[in-house]
Amino acid sequence: MTNLQPAPNLPKSPPSPDFWMPKSASVTSEHVDWIWDFMVWMSVVSAIMILGAMIYFCFKYQAKSRSANEYAEKSTDHNTTLEIVWSVIPLFVVIALFVWGFQGFVELRTPPANSFEIRATGQKWKWLFEYPNGYTDDTLHVPVDRPVRIVINSTDVLHSLFIPNFRVKMDAVPGRYTDLWFKATEPGDYPIFCTEYCGTSHSDMLSRVIVHPAGGYEAWMDKASNTDAVPLVELGKMMADKKGCLVCHTTDGTPKIGPSWKGLFGKTESTSAGSIPVDENYLRESITDPQAKVVNGFPPSMPVTTFRKDRELDAVIAYIKSLK
C-alpha cells in the first residue's frame, strides 16, 4: 500500500513462540490464549484417553470364535453410575469454561475510559482509518502501551476487522457502529485481515497496524498530516490508493467495477443523465455525489468519498487528468 509518509523502520511481526497462535502483542491476548491452551490440551488428553480405551476394549473383548461371540449369559447395556460420572464431571468443566470465558469477554468488550479513539471504515475492498485530527490513512498507526478503541463501520456490505496478534476481531456493519479495543505491548508491524466474505476481492482486503515506540506516534502524525508540500499529481495518486479508488478503477484502460481512469479526462461519457463531457466539474461531482450521473454499463456501487482538505480532492482530479 502507498502512504503519504513511509512507515517507520519497525520489525515485522516476529515468529510466535506458540505452535498454533501468532505472537501475542497486546494485553487483550491474555484473555484468549490461556483458555485456548486449556481447551486444546484438555481435548488432547481426552482424545488420548478415549482412543486408549477403544484400543484396550478392542483387544479385551475381541471374538475368538463364533461360539465365543454368542451371549452365554445375561448381559447389560446400561450403567447408571458411569453415565452420572461422565455427565457430571464435564458439567463442572463446562461451567468453569463459561465463567472464565465470560470474564474475558467482559474485559474485551469494556475499553478503558482513557482510550485513544480511531475510526475504521470498511469498503469493498479496503480499510480506511481516520485519526482524531481528521487525517486518514489506509494503515493503522497506534502508540505502544496506550489503550486504543477502534470505532468501526462499513459503507457497503459486511466486513470484519481482525488483528491476529492482538486477538481482536469485530464485524463492520453497514448503517451502524461497532467497536473493539486493545493495548499494544510491542512496537512492530502486524497484519490486518477482513474475515467476513465481502465479494470477489475479499482476500485482497489487507492492511497492517504499525505500533510506534514511545514518542514515535506523535512524530509520525506531525509528518503524515502535512500534505501541503507534496506535488498535486503525486498527492492525487496517493489519495486515490488510500481512499480505495484504485480497487474499482484502473489506470491502464481496463474497465473494472468502474470505468478506467486512463484517457478519461476530455472524453464524453454516456451516463444515466445523458452524454456528459468529462471535465473537472464532472469529476468533482462524480467523487462527491457518485450516484448523480452513473456511467452506463456500470453498477451504481461507488460510495461517497470525503476528503479532509479541498486540496486532496483537487489532487485526485489532477491525477486523473494526468492519465493520458
Explain what the structure shows:
With 324 residues, this protein is α+β, with helices and mostly antiparallel strands. The protein folds into 2 domains: 18-53 and 84-226, Sandwich (Immunoglobulin-like); 232-322, Cytochrome Bc1 Complex, Chain D, domain 2. It has 7 helices and 12 strands. It has helices at 33-60, 80-108, 216-224, 232-242, 245-248, 280-288, 310-322; strands at 116-123, 126-130, 136-137, 140-143, 147-154, 159-163, 168-172, 178-183, 188-194, 207-212, 268-271, 274-277. A 5-stranded mixed beta sheet has the order 3-2-1-5-8, with no helix packed on it. Strands 4-10-9-6-7 form a 5-stranded mixed beta sheet. Strands 11-12 form a two-stranded antiparallel ribbon. A hairpin with a 2-residue loop joins strand 11 and strand 12 (274-277). Helix 4 packs across helix 7 (310-322). The chain is elongated and about 95 Å long. The model is unreliable at 1-7 (pLDDT under 50).
